Predict the 3D structure of the following.
Amino acid sequence: MEKKLKGFLEECYNAVLEGDKQKAEKLATEAVKSGYDPYLVIENGLVQGIEKLGERWEQGTCFLPELVLGAEAVKAGISILQEPILKSKAGRKNLPRVIIGTIEGDIHDIGKTLVATMLSANGFEVIDLGVDVKSDNFVKMAKKYEPKFLCLSSLLTTTMQNEIRVIEGLKKANLRKKLKVMVGGAPASLSWAKEIGADLYAENAISAVKVAQREIGHESKRK
Amino acid sequence: MNRRPKLELLDKRRIEQIIDDALELLSKVGVFVENKEGLKLLDEAGAKIDKKKKRVHIKSELVQRCLKSAPKEIKVYDRVGRLALDLKGYNIHFDPGSAALWIYDLKKDKIREPVTSDLIRFAQLTDGLKYLKAQSTALIPSDVPKEIADRYRLFISLLYSSKPVVTGTFVKEGFEVMRDMLVSIRGSEDDLRREPLAIFDCCPSPPLKWSDLTCQNLIDCAKSGIPAELVSMPLTGATAPVTLTGALIQHTAENLSGIVIHQLAQKGSPIIYGGSPACFDMRTGTTPMGAIETMMIDSSYNQIGKYFGLPTHAYMGLSDSKTLDYQSGLESGIGAILAGLSGINVISGPGMLDFESCQSMEKLVIDNEICGMAYRLIEGIAFRKEPPFLELFKEEYLEKGFLTSPHTLKWFKEEVFFPSQVIDRFNLGEWLKKGKKTAVWRANELIEKIISSKSFDELSTEKKNELFKIIQSDAKKYGFDQELKKRFKSL
């Protein structure tokens, strides 16, 4: 059994490395049927795969399309493995929740979606508000969903200033201290984050995951 | 006539194929338009609008009609009224890469936020660099309220340099203030229309989208007759198909849709066929301007723009390097030379580092030399008929050499481009004696000389005051007027 499980986890890991969504779904379904611990499959199988891809990406041997396919395989697997978790008595472990969106006036999608995908593949619950999100809407959604992180993306120097309004809105709604604001996108920087009173800055999707994980005290279980 | 050397990556058949595909794309898939006025214009012109998706399907006939009314030549004049840019055919003009968030501070070896004094020095420097035919609002000031940064840049540019300005707005409210400044220099709206002083960048968002702001820019430019410059930026494999041809089809469609909206807003208004595409880097997720494929797309879409007979623009002659090194030189050099050979009418890029994010005054000075070389290159090789060639090889010269022959004296200055002290052509001994300086430090020394020479045309006190009044009344809305007054005490 032990050996069989090890081999199974290895298969999950490989499905992610290969960016094979269908295989990940098949394996996840099999795991549910066989009664494997879904957390184990997620954390020691799928997530380890995406972590490996992230490591390779940092070394320059994995390309973005492969990284995204890997992340999508993880997401697909997780969504199937979540079913028994939700049904079980213990219920669902609270995944750290993230709200993300591209700031008002800006309709750039790709960077924001990449961050959202990587976060959800790494065990975060992501609510993606899309692009051109009004500052009020960020605040409204933060109130409703009480996320741990609010991630603001901008690609234009012209629109990044709208991020200030979100932070002001959060303060007014007494939400500012309840969550961490992370900024990203081409014109953003650590000093920009400081200037507008955001908490965190990430220069890319992998770094966004690391920064968020560090904040919640999560240590990578990378092999 | 010398033969003008040209770079042409596409043949006529390919150009026509790309255009056909782009027209089909516009008609079948359409383009997303967020702006109400833009949608209204398109609706009235008979375009089919999917109201739910805000997607506009534009038929080929409408495109052809708008292409016909767009002017085939645009003349831009400097602040004094001299012709500075003659945008047509294979004429080329360089201007600094615009809207940098950062400036590279050589002495501190640090990338930092630009402040007003940087903007002033940058404008003065650009004014003194011979091969930059226009200036641009190159730096985004960090010491003014973000809401007025776009027009504040233009205010500084107009005060400290007489060259025409490549610029753009950050917010809808920016346009009116900026137009008023330009009008105040020229005297009236009609005068500004007759002698444009600035070019405004208008950027669709890839793939195939016109946001509310950028579409409004386009319409505002069209109505006021200020030349609009289309900056379509497909990113291969990210916001556009990964193949260079696929990106070109999308680029063509985005430009054509822009031309349609623009010409519908005001028939015959000047518009420039341009862009800032990039070969998206699949490892880092960045948009390298120094990638050879980026430049290949630029050169090719320029051919397509020329096929339509329109003036063209591209971001070339810039670098992705974060410092002044071998990479910054090679990427800028290749870009400027390819742009020159392609005959792109407006080439924006000199000075720029870190994709399109960081300006450097030292790099601007070095790039000015690259631009000079590009101008020389496109002049081609001259065939001088006088004197008959055998006379050049007289016994006398064969013995004594050619150094002082009348033929040498007559032509050496015509035939050869002489760079400034930035380019080192001394022998080793001389170079050592002069302190073993690199091009970057030689450029640094030149900056002070150029700025302190103050040879530029001062704006009259009356005009300065008019400009100041415009920016001041705008600054008041953001509580910045008092600070502004402190900064510009003499106005």
Remarks:
- Chain A has a mean pLDDT of 88.
- Residues 74 and 121 of chain A are 5 Å apart (CA to CA).
- Strands of chain A lie at 97-102, 125-128, 149-153, 180-184, 200-201.
